[in-house]
Records
---
Amino acid sequence: MEPFVYKKKKYPNLLIGILILAVLVVFLNYFSNGIKNLFYTVSNPIQKTLWEAGGNTSNFVSALLKIDDFANNTNQIAVQSQELLQQKSIAQNLSAENQILRQALDLGLQKDFNMVFTQIISKDLTSDSILVDKGSADGISKDMAVINQEKILFGKVSEVYKNFSKVDLITDKNFVVDAVAQGKEVYGDVKGNGNFGSYFELISKDAGLQDGDTLLTSALGGDFPKNLLIGEIENIKKEDTKPFQSAEIKPFFDLNNTESLFIITDFKKN
Amino acid sequence: MQYKIIILILLFYFLALFQNSFFVHLNIYGVAPDLVFILVCLVSFFFSQGNVKSHKKDHNRHTGLILTIFAGFLADIFSPSFFGISIVSFLAVYFFIKKSVDLLIDISGGYQVVYFLPIFIVSLVLYNFLAEVLLYFSGYVNFYFFSNGYFLLINLAYNLVFAIIGFYIFKVAKDGL
């Protein structure tokens, strides 16, 4: 027969541990905005440097991968060179036109919107959202649209701290905006699908949507200025069982080559 | 021991900055390595009871726990959700790894990557599952990890590469300190 040995139960320790953890979590959430703002402020200079370095590294790696593709496609390029020569003169004319349009667009930005310039600091791993270095102290509030200098829509402000803001990208699952296909009266909703993917939905079945169509924000919702660039239609899905058609979108925004953005604080609603 | 904790806390901090500002650019189909999670797994593995000499057990038990809570705090800072989701998920991973190491590994066998990798894979699935369930019930609808099969595979593969590299670096560094 084994002698009786008193074993100290672990449950009190476990309960104390859970209690301490619960108090810690409540404390952190109560002061959440202050804690996050303080942390971002301290880390801001390092994160800006890392963001820039990350973008450069990504471009370098992409360039290396493209060198390989380039070598494989040498023969095709030789065949296409004649065509390219013909297109050169057309491209020169277009380039001049583009320059003028760009200037006009820049002027339009100033004319149509009140904006705050901001820089990207980091991106969240678990969702398609980024952190930017302007917050409530700079007049930023929730749901403001975020664009770049080319009027490409990146997303909207989802959370505001004193000096920083979280921006849900248009590919985030929480993101929805009313959109229209450029040059067509085809309306629908653009929704984020996560992982840098988004789709265009609630489109009438008889709408003449095509791959390559450009999507712009519409003024229907009223939350966003109209005519902001969203992306390009690709892979249209029509199913007999569904009342609407939908399509995947190739977003125009490119995080790797972007360091600064504009937050639209006010715009003309007409 | 205290300077080890300080070094690891600083390491957690810089890895959090690196993964959210640098490695997000090097994503594969939107997947970037979760360096903070990898370090949590390494700390949990190497600081588990079965993996250290007996006179250091108490120290290491608390070290692993404190570092895991700190890592969860860091992950929650960069997360759009509430504080606590990553802390709880990381703690679940910590206790899972601790229990696994206690059950599976003989101290005399040393630190072997063959033990670590299956534990790491299960931990990654466990962590993402818990985090997503908690996110879902907190009102965030970001179901990434289990919504796409390819995403799951890329996530596992990409993190596994960094976990293997991290394993050997951590092993050498731990022996050296």
Note: The two ends of chain A are 90 Å apart (CA to CA).
---
Amino acid sequence: MTERGSDEPGSSFQEGGEIEQIHASDLALARRIEGGDETAFVALIRRHHAGFMRLATVWVRSPSVAEDVVQETWLVVLERLGEFQGRSALKTWLCGILVNIARSRARRENKLVPFDPLTMAQDLAPETAVPAERFSPPGHRWDGHWQRPPRSWAPSPEAVVVTTETLAIIERCLEELPAQQKAVLLFRDVEDLSAEEVCNALGISSTHQRVLLHRARSRMRALLEPHYDQRKGSSS
Amino acid sequence: MKSLKQTEIVCRDVVEIVHEYLEDALSSSERAGFEQHLHACPWCLTYMDQIRATALSVGKLGEAELPSLALPSAVESSLVAMFRARRKA
């Protein structure tokens, strides 16, 4: 999770009775780039390139096409930077542009496009977060309670050590996730967008966003469990 | 996700509604029932910590510098050239 501090609203003003948050530092950055600050522009593209490449591959699988999508995004950003008013975080605004370009590109290539109406029902078939056999079965005295409970990975979630091996497992799991779940997980946990920002960027309801996040994180947890359990076992 | 009509929440329910809890989407009575269960069940607390740890672990991808996702210098140069051309225009 990155740069939350820079996305915090810096001030607010009242218009039509509603308080609107202004992301002052993001607005200042946009104006600097618009004014010709090349160093600020280069820092921006370096900061977001890897995240944008990952996000683009939700819609276009090929890395070279993803590269095209990211480059086109920066072109559009430069053309439209004057429209950015700081009413969202700059990163949210950039992500919205990227999603639109990636989606158009996928449509042009006649791909099934995640979050289009035809694919919206995908990923919503019933599934459980944890296999049923880990709980006591119906009829048992402890029906629904853990039979094989989870083990602690660390004294706190923040204390969990993420190694290169952990990241490789996460990357593999991301590739196996259905596209919509992957998009929501990347936006929420890597790009650190809020639930509302994700709904706006992807054009989905808050319930759909939550279901996708739940399924993605549950699958990811299940894949990380043996890895962290084994490490905990070998260190104790 | 399961709609909770029963008053007593069991561990099997917790793993299905944990994100409704974390995203503040439960009604006040469901939230109270969920928290009551957590107070009494260290295993479900551990499960919720695992979910939080999962989110934090995935977030570390944003800090990792992977060569396969690095900005190629040729691409950076072309973007900078585009930036300069726009300034002149």
Note: Chain B touches chain A through 50 residues (CB under 8 Å).
